[in-house]
């Protein structure tokens, strides 16, 4: 059964892929690297590298094509994930399953606006419970949401991600929206949906299935642009508005004070019951770290063209400070290499958020998809090896300082469809040949990881 007509991202591609060029190469995610049919081959690659876990997401629409239990369950989708899980376990790999990685069923977007509505909370809980019932006897690590910040910012502030919404005054050719309110609503209901899924898992399944459940949050590290108090405060606010936006409710039951103060009535409120349900609603934290930014104090009248992007009164840049870039630039214009930041964000998390168990659920760097390179040249990703060597060194330092990091996942195993970047960049440690039947080839970084894991 094809799911593409039921998936919001497929609709986004059709609307924007060729019209507004929201996807850089006008590609789509219909087949991508065809993991659906090649999962045994990919599991074999992982086993050959001596990996012991694989993080992947379940597509909500593949399980529930219409988004709700009442709309019917796709048995073929259930069978596919059972086959994948069983293949992983048979080859010594533990599945870490993400329930929502931005691929919302189109039916729910059409019916009530997806994560802009409180109705999403029960529908997500029901979908999550179906997954617990079908797969929980073998799956011991669940992740409710992947990067709610990216979904809210990309989908409702810049419009670069589905559903492609933003304020009209931004003139970004969006489908409608309000960048001063909708990202806060989308994040609010993502948090409540997360809490509802965790609650049902802990009440009905955790004791018998003996698994753990958490959430994956992304954060950059933020460095004051200067040594002034204003810029130091701006860096703290930037962390609040990206990381604390989720970690404060998950740990303390409410948004950071800086957000309450600056966003005001546009920031939704939790009831006392919701606050209590959110507090401590994870067994482990998944942390995605890629890059760092300078933060400078940037006053703004939040009553004029309000937007999440200016609410923090912090101007974020990777530009030169005292003639120095924050780090080497990757293929993506948002990713500058700053390995020390992984240690800093881990220590910050330990000290501010009650010393949680942490898995690094994404860390990686991309290169340009250059068709002019020979295969041998394309596989020589020494920059990626250097990236991982330095990040893992700082990760080791954080562990030595007492941070409870229990695992590390590279982004990504394979080159793939990278959202609005399409196929213009490659994040994989294994090369996918888009011109030769999607054949997989290990890059030097894959061989480096294999040797690293043998030591």
Automatic annotation (TrEMBL):
GO annotation (BP), single: carbohydrate metabolic process
Keywords of this entry: Glycosidase, Hydrolase
Annotated GO MF terms: beta-glucosidase activity
Keyword Hydrolase among record annotations: yes
Transmembrane segments: none
Family: Belongs to the glycosyl hydrolase 1 family.
Cross-referenced PANTHER family: GLYCOSYL HYDROLASE (PTHR10353), MYROSINASE 3-RELATED (PTHR10353:SF137)
The name this protein goes by in its record: Uncharacterized protein
Species of provenance: Vitis rotundifolia
Phylogenetic lineage: Eukaryota, Viridiplantae, Streptophyta, Embryophyta, Tracheophyta
């Amino acid at each position: 059964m094809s799911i593409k007509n039921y998936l919001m991202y497929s609709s986004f591609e059709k609307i924007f892929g060729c019209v507004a060029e929201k996807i850089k190469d006008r590609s789509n995610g219909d087949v991508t690297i065809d993991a659906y049919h090649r999962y045994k081959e990919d599991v074999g690659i992982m086993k050959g590298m001596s990996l012991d876990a694989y993080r992947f997401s379940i597509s909500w629409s593949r399980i529930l094509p219409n988004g709700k239990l009442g709309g019917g369950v796709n048995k073929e989708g259930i069978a596919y994930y059972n086959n994948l899980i069983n293949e992983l376990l048979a080859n010594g790999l533990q599945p870490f399953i993400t329930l929502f990685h931005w691929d919302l069923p189109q039916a729910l977007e059409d019916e009530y606006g997806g994560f802009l509505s409180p109705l999403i909370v029960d529908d997500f809980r029901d979908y999550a419970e179906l997954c617990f019932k079908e797969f929980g006897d073998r799956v011991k690590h669940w992740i409710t949401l992947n990067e709610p910040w990216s979904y809210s910012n990309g989908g409702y502030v810049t419009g670069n991600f589905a559903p492609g919404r933003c304020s009209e005054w931004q003139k970004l050719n969006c489908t409608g929206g309000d960048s001063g309110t909708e990202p806060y609503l989308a994040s609010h209901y993502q948090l409540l949906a997360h809490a509802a899924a965790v609650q049902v898992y802990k009440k009905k399944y955790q004791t018998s299935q003996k698994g753990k459940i958490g959430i994956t949050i992304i954060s950059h590290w933020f460095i004051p642009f200067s040594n002034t108090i204003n810029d130091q405060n701006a860096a703290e606010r930037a962390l609040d508005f990206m990381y604390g936006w989720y970690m404060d409710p998950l740990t303390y039951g409410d948004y950071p004070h800086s957000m309450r103060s600056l966003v005001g009535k546009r920031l939704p409120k939790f009831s006392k019951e919701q606050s209590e349900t959110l507090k401590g609603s994870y067994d482990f934290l998944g942390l995605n770290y890629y890059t760092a930014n300078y933060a400078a104090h940037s006053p703004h009248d939040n009553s004029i063209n309000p937007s999440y992007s200016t609410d923090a009164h912090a101007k974020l840049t990777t530009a030169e400070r005292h003639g120095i870039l924050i780090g080497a630039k990757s293929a993506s214009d948002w990713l500058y290499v700053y390995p020390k930041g992984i240690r800093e964000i881990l220590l910050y998390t330990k000290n501010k958020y009650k010393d949680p168990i942490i898995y690094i659920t994404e860390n990686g760097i991309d290169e340009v998809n250059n068709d002019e390179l020979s295969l041998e040249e394309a596989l020589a990703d020494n920059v990626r090896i250097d990236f991982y060597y330095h990040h893992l060194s700082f990760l080791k330092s954080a562990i030595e300082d007492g941070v409870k990091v229990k695992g590390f996942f590279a982004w990504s195993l394979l080159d793939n469809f990278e959202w609005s970047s399409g196929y213009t960049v490659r994040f994989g440690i294994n090369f996918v040949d888009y011109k030769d039947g999607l054949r997989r080839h290990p890059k030097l970084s894959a061989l480096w990881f294999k040797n690293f894991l043998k030591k």
